[in-house]
Design a protein that fits this description.
Elements lengths: L1 H20 L8 E3 L6 E3 H17 L4 E4 L13 E9 L1 H5 L6 E8 L2 E9 L4 E6 L3 E4 L2 E2 L12 E3 L18 E3 L4 H10 L4 E4 L3 E2 H13 L3 E3 L14 E2 L2 E4 L1 H10 L6
Parallel strand pairs: 3-4, 10-11, 10-12
Antiparallel strand pairs: 1-2, 4-5, 5-6, 6-7, 7-8, 8-9, 12-16, 13-15, 14-16
Helix pairs in contact: 1-2, 4-5
Length: 261
């Protein structure tokens, strides 16, 4: 089944993209989730519905974990599951920007085996299969091999560079930001940026697809301590994420402090 999973994800991503773009970002009905969990729009739910219908009809024996579906824990009894973020970067979507993404992954026994990340307004479809490489619109990707330097382009929110997060001086690098974690990881896989860093606990649905794109492009991705990423956890969160080419990853990891925000 694994060989057919990636085409399924790519087709589903494009279908979901058409649904998402049928809504006008700023005009889409929006509300805030409880407990400060961020905004959600009618577009998020519509994309979630079409993905659930498309993917679970094709693979009824796979579990399901999505940001926009209540998690009943049933997925923990299944070896294989979908991990979905219908719109990663909802604030960007609401603002009418183009940097939001649809993120779809399949994980088997804790390891991502197929992934697709689609930015409909940029017509960028990133995809990866375990052991088969990563692509952007069909072209092979290769992560940056650059060592750390002041020219290293690192995607991270400002709080990650607070001095408390580092053993010594904060690394002197070229800092950048994109609102979607999935897109940040894709850009590292693409080699347009040298690294991506988030030190806060991160939801699996924000990371799963991008993790495979980075690793299949030859990059290294771990949690903030250097530990491997495992998916389908009882609480579906990871202990931060560090993604980069192997040399830069090692440099940044060595400089990170034991305690971080």
């Amino acid at each position: 089944m694994q060989a057919a999973d990636l085409p399924l994800l790519k087709d589903a991503a494009r279908i979901a993209g058409r649904v998402a773009t049928s809504f006008v970002g700023p005009a889409a009905t929006r509300w805030d989730k409880p407990d400060g969990a961020g905004p959600v729009t009618e577009a998020d739910l519509a994309v979630n519905d079409v993905l659930m219908s498309t993917l679970r009809t094709a693979r009824p024996d796979y579990g399901w974990l999505s940001e926009e579906t209540e998690d009943d824990g049933g997925r923990l009894e299944q070896d294989t599951l979908f991990i979905i973020d219908p719109i990663d970067g909802t604030r960007s979507f609401v603002e009418g920007a183009r940097t939001w993404a649809i993120s779809i992954a399949i994980a088997h026994q804790g390891r991502v085996t197929a992934a697709a990340i689609y930015l409909p307004l940029r017509d960028k479809l990133y995809a990866a299969g375990l052991g088969t490489g990563a692509t952007l619109n069909g072209d092979a990707l290769r992560a940056s091999a650059n060592p750390i330097s002041p020219a290293s382009k690192v995607l991270a929110a400002r709080p990650n560079f607070e001095p408390k997060n580092w053993k010594g001086d904060v690394p002197h690098v070229d800092r950048h930001y994109r609102p979607s974690l999935a897109y940040r990881l894709s850009l590292v896989g693409e080699g347009k940026f040298d690294a991506m860093l988030t030190l806060r606990p991160s939801w699996e649905w924000d990371i799963a697809a991008g993790a495979l794109i980075v690793s299949e492009a030859g990059g290294t991705i771990t949690d903030r301590t250097g530990g491997p990423l495992r998916f389908n956890n009882p609480r579906p969160m990871l202990n931060g994420v560090l993604a980069a080419g192997p040399a830069l990853h090692a440099d940044l990891l060595n400089q990170l402090g034991p305690h971080s925000a």
